[in-house]
Design brief:
The protein is mainly α. The protein is built from 4 helices and no strands. 86% of the residues lie in helices and 0% in strands. Helix 3 packs antiparallel against helix 4. The longest helix has 26 residues.
């Protein structure tokens, strides 16, 4: 929904390609205990920033979301080794 709202076909195609490339990471991360709940809360935070119209805060919230998901996935993988 957010991608399409930009109405930039070129950007949408880039984001769709990136999404396909990281899909495996996303699926694996959601199996980490508490990740789905945390992800939902993080998406809520991103949405609030969008509603406020603060682009820098949106960018930061998205970066934090990706970072937390990656950290959770790394931690889960280390525990399984």
């Amino acid at each position: 929904m957010i991608w399409n709202s930009c109405q930039n076909r070129w950007l949408i195609k880039i984001l769709e390609n990136l999404s396909r490339q990281i899909h495996r990471f996303i699926v694996n991360a959601l199996y980490v205990p508490q990740r789905m709940e945390n992800s939902s809360a993080e998406h809520g935070e991103i949405l609030e920033k969008i509603k406020r119209g603060n682009g820098k805060a949106v960018e930061k919230a998205i970066g934090n979301h990706f970072r937390r998901a990656l950290e959770d996935l790394k931690e889960e993988l280390v525990q399984k080794i």
